[in-house]
Each structure stands twice: as structure tokens, then as C-alpha cells.
Write a structure and sequence with these properties.
This protein is α+β, with helices and mostly antiparallel strands and about 130 residues long. It is built from two helices and eight strands. Strand 2 and strand 3 form a beta hairpin.
Length: about 130
Amino acid sequence: MKKTISTDKAPAAIGPYSQAVWAGDLLFCSGQLGIDPTKGTLAGPGIQAQAEQSLANIEAILASQGLDASDVVKTLVFLTDMGDFKTFNEIYGKTFKENPPARSCVAVPALPLCGVVEIEVTAQKR
């Protein structure tokens, strides 16, 4: 059974998609830019502010469903500059401290709203 999810604790979708979708015991979260949900704008110009906000948005979506970062089984990260990879890893490691999920990280030429990072996750309800 498919169920769409929306929370005002994370930015609203900027297109025709859901913040997240339940499919069985898996929660598929759409890619999260570093948008501050209270302002509707990017949290800052660089990787640190945007990565921290992107992860906070993910945690808000997870929390709205009774989940947390430990329930994440897979992440997909999009960076506009692989030069940010080391800094991103330091920030990412603060959220996924133990038993981190599987992850892919790819470089892309551009992201919506001129963001520098977008993160999507899949979580499993235990």
C-alpha cells in the first residue's frame, strides 16, 4: 500500500512530487535541498549550511513518521562540486554516526534553486 507524507517541519515540495512515500515498511524520501522551511530559501550559499539544513529536513520528515537517522538504509547524495566531498562527509558523519546506511554520491552540473547539495533517503520501519 502506498501512502504519501507531508510535514510542515520540512520544505514543501517545489514540484509535482511528495516529500515522502510509504511503500510497505519502506519510507522513500524525496531529495532534500538545504532549504530552510521557515523562510523558503536556501540556508546559506555554501556546502556547510546547505548540507546541515538538508539533513535537518530529512530528520524532520523521518521524525514525522516516528523514525530517525538510524532507520535509514540507503542515501543518495548529489553535489554540484566534488571539491565539497570532504566537508560534506564531515557534516554527514554527524548524522549517521554508527552503522551508517549504504550511500551513493554523484556530481551533477546543477540543482534546483542553485543548491549545492541534495540528499534523498530510504528508511525502513523496524
